[in-house]
Amino acid sequence: MTAFYFFVFLAACGAAAATGSVFLPGAWYQSLKKPSWTPPKKAFPIVWTTLYVASAIAATRIAISDNPGPGLALWSLQIALNTLWTPVFFGAKRMGMGMIVIALLWLVMAAITVVFLQTDLIAGLLMIPYFAWIGLAGALNWRIWRANRNRNK
Amino acid sequence: MTAFYFFVFLAACGAAAATGSVFLPGAWYQSLKKPSWTPPKKAFPIVWTTLYVASAIAATRIAISDNPGPGLALWSLQIALNTLWTPVFFGAKRMGMGMIVIALLWLVMAAITVVFLQTDLIAGLLMIPYFAWIGLAGALNWRIWRANRNRNK
Fold it and tell me: Which CATH number, 3.10.310.40, 3.40.50.1820, 3.40.50.1100, 1.20.1260.100, labels domain A2-151?
């Protein structure tokens, strides 16, 4: 069952990742004012691939644990919110709605990290970088949104 | 825990449903050739709301069952694919890629229906209309794609 779980969770991450290949940051995003601490463009695919693999491993560990329910329910919510964010921000260019989505995702990631840590230490630790990254991405969404109010839809 | 599960699964459905409010079928979709059996526009929000509520109830029943793992893993994959489809089809107007996403979703829905039926009869029955609807939506995606090849991206 371990391989089945890992494959299914990684496929769900693949669906979320696919949004990044469909809605690329184009001329619109390049033209936005961004803070100095914006990570270099090259970092994003590397970071996301690492986070998705870690997240799929963590979810697999929870799935085979004694109490998979709460963690997997929250995991399904985070992958839906994650899949939603890129089309909203880069597709529809709705930075304010993107902020709402990523703020919700950050709260859900906080809950997942706590629940995973309680169920399986390694699974919880594997989610911490993802949680931290959503915090950074959320701060970036906020700063870009506020610095480009005239560009809001 | 039942209320927690239902709320979390319904929130995940809400993320999927939000794509429909961001990427509305506009002038592009209206102008496409569609088969005679295309359901009326008004039907979609009513059908989807019903299917999402049924799907959240079904997932809740699986979450509180003796064997929640396999069903919830597949449920997280279907909600990610579902959230992906609307931005791909209506946002990016990529009908061919939409066909791939909905074909995968249909296969996952078939697996979910079987797994849910084995775990909890009512949960499985609650997924059958959703599975059937994805079959219809997939057939519609196919027909619209093939009838409008010149409009493909």
Answer: 1.20.1260.100
